[in-house]
Write a structure and sequence with these properties.
Strand order of the largest sheet: 4-5-6-9-3-2-15
Protein name: Prolyl-t-RNA synthase
Pfam family, one: tRNA-synt_2b
CATH class of the largest domain: Alpha Beta
CATH architecture of the largest domain: 2-Layer Sandwich
Order of helices and strands: HEEEHEEEHEEEHEHHEHEHEEHHE
Strand content: 15-25%
Number of domains: 2
Helix content: 25-40%
Radius of gyration: 33 Å
InterPro entries: aa-tRNA-synt_IIb, aa-tRNA-synth_II, aa-tRNA-synth_II/BPL/LPL, Anticodon-bd_dom_sf, Pro-tRNA_synthetase
Number of strands: 15
GO molecular function, one term: ATP binding
Keywords: Aminoacyl-tRNA synthetase, ATP-binding, Ligase, Nucleotide-binding
Shape: elongated
Length: about 425
């Protein structure tokens, strides 16, 4: 950025090599190499061809990394490992891309560099990532060296690697949008499943179902107490004088005693047909969540068409619509259904699973025009492979996780994670 005194970070080659020099007190031992430093951080550049998009702006999120080596051979091995790593990232995201080898001694003074370009809908390839084999250029310029086994100072060989997180999102939207919205791949979608209840109304809110659950719990406790009282009847086998037992008809008039409170049936009394549908929805949500499946429950009062539009706009790849038939709503829940509403235990022993097993819901994948009517049992089988997705991450965080995960596939030697522009060690 243009300034006469301060500079914001456009890239961090100089800071990275200065950092390791400070950490090792200007005596970098050979046994500490190779060393990898990487960070997810915001970069600032005074772009001449500024675009009002995520592709090219003055501030953007980037993953940049730097490797330091004692030989050119070691640098080449790490350089090609990064190249394969970045290729895997673009392949996993299903982005059409090509890798272009750039000429030597470019603006980064690199001995070798490769640019990763993604094909956009306008037919143009645009830069998404870049890796540079810098050699000992920065070591010579800054006078930073390492100590070999004979305690002699030698130049450090350096590599630089960067991939734009904001640009990845730009390419994903450009590649996968349609007339309805965004079709993000499951690996980076903000949620894996979008859950909709068609008869959702404010009166059937979480507060209402909480009251139902509480009422059922109180009922269950009262019934348990009654059973306990019956079991504690005094043993009458030792009663000998039965002549004093008076006939109830001859007993004097007693004052009226209040009747015992009537205990409602927890299975039917607190619940109506819409409540059963709501219990199914909440149970599904909790079950998916406890299985580490990203699921978003749209509990708003919006019309169904608005909910479907919201699902498409944010790029959720799967949606489930619950709209029980009149017959299915007559299902009677077990008296202690509240014990199974939110349990991390296995699904099959769950009484609610056995109750709803054959209930049908509508399922649709964002990548298929076909709508499927499937049972709850079929639904769980459909999503059993989604249990390895982290719950509740934003698209940006998912992209960061994706790049970091692929980055560490080849992790060798020493690795350091930078948290800030000031390069503080974690």
């Amino acid at each position: 950025m243009e300034d006469d005194g301060l500079i914001l970070s456009p890239t961090c080659e100089e800071q990275a090599i200065s950092l390791i020099n400070q950490v090792y007190n200007e005596n970098i031992p050979a046994k500490s190499l190779p060393l990898l430093i990487h960070q997810f951080n915001y970069k600032f550049r005074n772009e001449k061809r500024l675009e009002k998009t995520l592709f090219k702006s003055k501030e953007f999120l980037m993953k940049d990394g730097y490797s330091f080596h004692s030989s050119d051979i070691c640098l080449s091995e790490t350089y090609h490992a990064y190249k394969e790593c970045y290729e895997k990232i673009f392949s996993d995201l299903k982005l059409p891309f090509k890798v272009t080898k750039k000429r030597k001694m470019d603006k980064m003074n690199a001995l070798e560099s490769h640019e990763f370009q993604v094909l956009c809908r306008d037919g143009k390839y645009k830069e998404a990532a870049h890796i540079f084999k810098l050699g000992d250029y920065y070591s010579k310029k800054l006078g930073i060296k390492y100590l070999n086994k004979r305690n002699e100072k030698n130049n450090i060989f350096m590599g630089s690697y960067g991939i734009g997180i904001y640009r990845l999102l730009y390419f994903l939207v450009d590649s996968f949008y349609d007339d309805e919205g965004i079709r993000l791949p499951p690996q980076v979608a903000p949620f894996s499943v979008y859950l909709i209840q068609t008869n959702q109304r404010s009166k059937y809110s979480a507060a209402k179902i909480a009251k139902i659950v509480k009422m059922a719990q109180v009922t269950g406790a009262a019934q348990a107490m009654n059973v306990s009282s019956v079991s504690n009847v005094t043993n009458v086998s030792n009663v000998t004088n039965v002549t004093n037992v008076t006939n109830a008809t001859n007993m004097p008039n007693m004052p009226n005693m209040p009747n015992a409170p009537t205990v409602p049936n927890a299975t039917t009394a607190p619940l109506n047909s819409n409540d059963v549908e709501y219990v199914l929805t909440l149970w599904l949500y909790n079950t998916f969540k406890n299985s580490n499946v990203d699921i978003y429950y749209d509990d708003t009062d919006l019309h169904l068409s608005r909910k479907l539009k919201n699902c498409d706009l944010i790029g959720v790849p799967n949606r489930i619509i619950i709209n029980l038939s009149s017959e299915q709503r007559k299902i009677k829940l077990p008296p202690d259904f509240y014990n199974y509403m939110d349990t991390p235990n296995a699904i099959l022993p769950n009484k609610l699973y056995m109750t709803f097993r054959d209930v049908t819901v509508e399922y649709k994948s964002r990548f298929s025009p076909e709508k499927k009517i499937m049972t709850i049992h079929q639904l769980f089988r459909q999503h059993r492979s989604a249990s390895n997705i982290t719950f509740g991450q934003s698209v940006f965080m998912r992209l960061r996780h994706k790049t970091k995960q692929s980055w560490e596939l080849f992790g060798s030697g020493n690795s350091v994670m930078l948290q800030t522009v000031t390069c503080s060690l974690s």
